[in-house]
Structure formats: C-alpha cells, structure tokens
Amino acid sequence: MEFDWSVEDAAYRKEFVDFLGEILPENWDEISKHGPGSDLQAEFSKKFCGKMADKGWLTQHWPAEYGGKDAGAWRHAVVGEECWAIGEPRGSQYMNVNWVGPAVMQYGTDEQKKLHLPAIASGNIFWCQGFSEPEAGSDLVSLRTLAIPDGDDYVINGTKIWTSYVQHANYCFLLARTDPDSKRHTGISVFLVPMETPGIEVREIPSVVGARYFHEVFFTDVRVPKGCMLGEVNAGWEVVNFALQYERVGAARYARAALTLDHLAKVAKETGLMDDPIVVDKLAQARCICEAARMLTYRVIDTRAKDAKPTTDTQLARIAGTRTDRAIGELAVEILGPDALEYGSFADANFRLAMTAGVAVGATEVQLNLVARRFLELPKK
Fold first, then answer.
1. Is the entire prediction scored with pTM above 0.70?
2. For the chain, where are the alpha helices, taking DSSP H only?
C-alpha cells in the first residue's frame, strides 16, 4: 500500500506552506492562541480566506459547477493539515468549506445554492451550528426547539447551548423539531437561518477554553420563510448525518498534535528529561497515537476521494483524533511543568484547545456507541 503523497499534492503542499509564510502576520502566534472563535482571528480569517479564494484554493475540492476546481479530497486534506497545525487561520470558515457547503450542494434548492455557495466560496461569510440544547447535548435527538408552520413561514422557539462562533455568524445551521408529536430521529428539520432575524438573542458562556467560544442562543418567535428549510420537512436527521460525516474529520487535530509533540521533544532534550525512560516512553506512545489518528483519518479521506459511502471509520478516526489531542495536551503540561500554567503559553493554549476535542461534533462517548452498534453490532440496552 502506498502511503506517500502524489507528486502534484506534495508540490501543492510546498506552495501552500510558502503562501502561509507570506500572508501570516508576525504576531500570528498571539492571534491564534485565542482560538478560531476570537474577534482577532475572525477578523484575520476574512483576509486570509479572501486571499485563498482569489487563488481558487478555499473551495478547490468543490465541484466546478459550484465554484470549485474538482481538486478532490486529498488536496483539501493538505490545506486542513497545514492550517490546523498552526492554529487554523481560516477561523470558523473551515466549517463552511468542510460541511456546510457540501450539505447545501446535496440537499439545497437552486435558490439556496445560488445564495449560499458563492458567499462561502468568497471567504467572507461566517456560519455557526445550532445543534446542542440544555436537555439535548450529546443526546442530540432529544432536542426540543420547535419550528411550527404559519402561512409561508415557520415560527421557531427554543434554546441552543455550547454554540461556537455565534458572535460573528451570518447564518445558523439550525436543527428544530417540525413535528411536535415526534420522538428521537423523526420529525426533525434543518433550517438555514440568518442570524440578524428578529427574535434571536445571544449570550456568551464564560469558560476556561477562552473568550467568545461558547454561547447560548435563544429563539423567541423567530419567523423564517419556508424557503430556509434545507432538505425535506421532517427529514433533517438524514441531512445532519451527511454533514457530520464531513465535520468529524474536518479538523486535522493530529497535525497540530504532531507539531506540539515535536516541540515537547525538543524541550525534553534541552532540559535533560530525555534521560528519564518514562518520559521517553510517553513521548513514543504519543507519537504512535498521532500516527494512528492520521492513518485512520486518511482511510476516511480515501473513502471520500473514491466517492464511496461513509463507514464507521469516520467514528474511529474521530475517537483517535480527540484522544490524541487530549493525550498530548496532558503531556505538554507534564513536560513543561509550572510554565505550562501561564495563560496563553504554548502548553496552556494547546490544553484548552484539547479540552473541546472530546465534546465537539458528538462526544467521544457518542462516537464509541456508534462504533459499538454499527461496527461491532452490539445490542443496544
């Protein structure tokens, strides 16, 4: 089996890395440590994504008919690895190109495609996802937000929580129950809701992860046209499953973890910790975890490149990626010692980012349950 990159993709990686060296400001480390949800990073991402769009790189993996270049999944993976490793200069727009756009291509009307796809491809639009609720976090199908038809509109009432990137979002990819009597996976629909719609209130949730990261979003008699629904009424769970298969490997966490691990090994060598066999063993184990996460992710990308149906490999890759992030985050604190406790330090920024890894896009426990049911075919109790 060939694990190396093609000559063309390897050449593109070099070109893209050179581009990063030219466009990233000298204070990028300071900007990136606050995370993709920060005001500074959101502001920079418009410039960065705009430059990528000018080169035809932002959505190059999209079909040409939707503003892409038919570049394929591997070319997009190169961008994801290099961007995530240095702190994701695309900001929250990485979601737009990873799964919001593909979901609109798959399920959108002609009008929705004309409205949203060129805007995403321009690099000047922000999205957030309205999924989790106070009583429906990891158990997403327990959501209670209601969207009731009223003439040509739907009227939405409910609350979303732990929502990232809201303060800059132009649109919300919203899940709501359109059949009040339905349960679990049935009766759910997806709406593409403009965030400027009257009745939407946003409150930040202070957290150790960082400012502007988590929010509550309240929908009070929010009226949206029926044309905002993505896909068929009451068939939203199919849309969500499609989108999440893209999102669960959308962030190349293993790339960031590998870069962090290189830094930790350098520090360990400089401080004499390499003389401790326990430290050497932990560094080796962390490297193995990184490589396992990378190869599992590549299996998913290969499936996508061949236009095959998603498999449980998606969940396995997500589990490996989040565990990698967490393991190396903890190792960073151990090796760097008290210096790691300084807010904004290398270890602190990495550890805070790692804290979100096992929660976003379905908790690790949810992914394990999916593997148990879909791959191991274990009975559900």
1. yes
2. 7-23, 28-32, 39-54, 73-85, 93-95, 101-107, 110-122, 236-247, 253-270, 277-305, 313-336, 346-355, 364-374
